[in-house]
Specification:
It is a single chain. It contains twelve helices and 15 strands. The protein is of the alpha/beta class. α3 packs across α4 (about 110-125), α4 crosses α5 and α10 (about 255-265) runs antiparallel to α11 (about 270-285). The longest helix has 17 residues, at about 270-285. The relative contact order is 0.10.
């Protein structure tokens, strides 16, 4: 239904979209995810020319959207858009908001438009609100009216630009429920969203955008369970990092402990976890040779709650494994094993990587 090739968008010297190429098939539900500021909303706005692309090509049902003679208004009628803000007319009733487009743009009679509008408001659960005004509705109800208004134009595809981002958390589910029903009915949709559970549940395909490109795409299982790219993995698991370099045995333990406490408090880790992290680092640095220094990193996954300590040092000998040459202090070893669920060692090109997963 939609084919995008090498789409670009710049605002002066700021390049928001660098090279976006993908297709959207009829009946597909595509969720577009990624960090803020990576061009997701700009991508949607370029598809219906709310923002004029700086380069590339867009075809809708075989028609070149960017060709000089293309009837953009006619193509836009096939592609509805639901925004973060609801953009309802406050001086019009809910039913009038839904009917104004079909009457003025599609040439429908008021009777035809009101009949269809009433059906759509019933579909989104707002049949009793036809005579109400936007100021009398909650945010979730306003967004459902915006979806009904979009559907009143009989679009072939709907673009959703973070439809729940302006809503109170208690109202998110009612809007997502409407979108789920549209997906079941076979409506083609492209959805920019930060609701990861919803994206996984409703989508045929996920596009992960980063730095103005589609960094990775695949099925929900591929993206959420087996992401190939490092940036995708970090985003999906909401991994928070702490990293430092220890150059020799004369490192400042108190400064290091203070930084670890700050990291834990920033991510609301418990006092017990803070204590275990400090103790683990202190004991690990007692048993690991620091002659050539090492890189130390903590990774915390907000999604799974898993916390890992990784240490990378220049060495080609195991410290904890069966091939270890030096016997470790039994008290330190007991403390480390008591804090860790697992300890893995890997030697590659003269470097030893130690990975500890905490209990």
């Amino acid at each position: 239904m939609i084919q995008i090739e090498h789409l670009q968008k710049s605002y002066g010297s700021l390049q928001v979209l660098r090279d976006v190429t993908t297709t959207i098939q009829q009946g597909e539900v595509i969720s577009i995810i990624g960090p803020s500021g990576t061009g997701k909303s700009t991508f949607l706005r370029c598809l219906n020319l709310l923002d004029q692309p700086s380069g590339g090509k867009v075809w809708i049902n075989g028609v070149n959207l960017l060709a000089p003679k293309t009837d953009v208004t006619k193509l836009r009628q096939k592609m509805g858009m639901v925004f973060q803000s609801f953009n309802l007319f406050n001086h019009l009733s809910i039913l009038e908001n839904v009917c104004i487009g079909p009457i003025k743009l599609l040439g429908k009679t008021r009777i035809e438009a009101e009949k269809r509008g009433t059906e759509l408001l019933k579909m989104v659960g707002l049949a009793e609100k036809t005579t109400a005004y936007p100021d009398q509705l909650s945010g979730g109800q306003k967004q459902r009216v915006a979806i009904a208004r979009c559907l009143s134009m009989d679009p072939e595809i709907i673009l959703f630009d973070e439809p729940t981002s302006a809503l109170d958390p208690t109202m998110v589910s009612e809007v997502l429920g409407v979108i789920r029903n549209l997906a079941k009915e076979g409506m083609t949709m492209a959805i920019v969203t930060h609701e990861m559970g919803f994206a996984r549940d409703v989508s045929n395909r996920i596009l992960y955008m980063d730095e103005g490109i589609i960094y990775e795409e695949g099925t929900p299982d591929e993206i959420f369970d087996h992401p190939k790219g490092e940036k995708t993995r970090v985003f999906i698991n909401r991994i928070r990092n702490y990293h430092c370099r220890i150059d020799n045995a004369n490192y400042d333990l108190y400064a290091l402990s203070g930084e670890l406490i700050t990291f834990c408090q920033k991510h609301f880790l418990s006092a017990k976890t803070q204590y275990n992290i400090q103790l683990l680092v202190e004991e690990m640095l007692q048993v690991i040779p620091l002659d050539s220094g090492l890189d130390l990193a903590f990774n915390y996954s907000e999604r799974s709650g898993q916390l890992t300590l990784e240490m990378l040092l220049t060495d080609d000998k195991q410290i904890f494994g069966p091939a270890a040459e030096k016997e470790l202090d039994p008290i330190s070893l007991s403390i480390i094993k008591g804090i860790c669920k697992s300890i893995d060692e890997e030697i590659e090109e003269g470097q030893l990587r130690i990975k500890c997963v905490l209990n």
